[in-house]
């Protein structure tokens, strides 16, 4: 029974739940970025490059041979176009994360820049000093 209790305590920790939420949101964000790259960014790039579809780019090492139905040989190719698509997706994700971190840092700097109010004894001593100065002008 104690192993079940330990597992429950482990699974219900804040860190584990936060991690689970992060993984789910990260997966959803990955789908959004994939769609952004495939449906929005790559078509104009393909149009600018003369209709080239990067995902179909490949270097064929050995062409397929389907002349003999009994011994079909599959094509052997390096799909560098898919790599280009993946690289563009990475750059977009990295840039989006950069913007988010930059915004968070900017907000945290504003909070750090706000000076803390001075302690009550410092305020009282300052008032006494100012009062003494006003009574004995030099």
TrEMBL record:
Cited HAMAP family: MscL
Lineage: Bacteria, Pseudomonadati, Pseudomonadota, Gammaproteobacteria, Lysobacterales
Any one Gene Ontology cellular component term annotated for this protein: plasma membrane
The UniProt record lists the keyword Membrane: yes
Pfam families from the UniProt entry: MscL
Domain of life from the UniProt record: Bacteria
Main function: Channel that opens in response to stretch forces in the membrane lipid bilayer. May participate in the regulation of osmotic pressure changes within the cell.
PANTHER family the record matches: LARGE-CONDUCTANCE MECHANOSENSITIVE CHANNEL (PTHR30266:SF2), MECHANOSENSITIVE CHANNEL MSCL (PTHR30266)
Location of the protein in the cell: Cell inner membrane; Cell membrane
One of the record's GO molecular function terms: mechanosensitive monoatomic ion channel activity
Name used for this protein in its record: Large-conductance mechanosensitive channel
Species name: Dyella japonica A8
Subunit organization: Homopentamer.
InterPro entries recorded: Mechanosensitive_channel_CS, MS_channel, MSC/AndL, MscL_channel
Gene (name only): mscL
Plastid in keyword set: no
Transmembrane segments: 16-37, 77-101
UniProt-listed Gene3D superfamilies: Large-conductance mechanosensitive channel, MscL, domain 1
Keyword annotations from UniProtKB, A to Z: Cell inner membrane, Cell membrane, Ion channel, Ion transport, Membrane, Transmembrane, Transmembrane helix, Transport
Membrane topology: Multi-pass membrane protein
Family: Belongs to the MscL family.
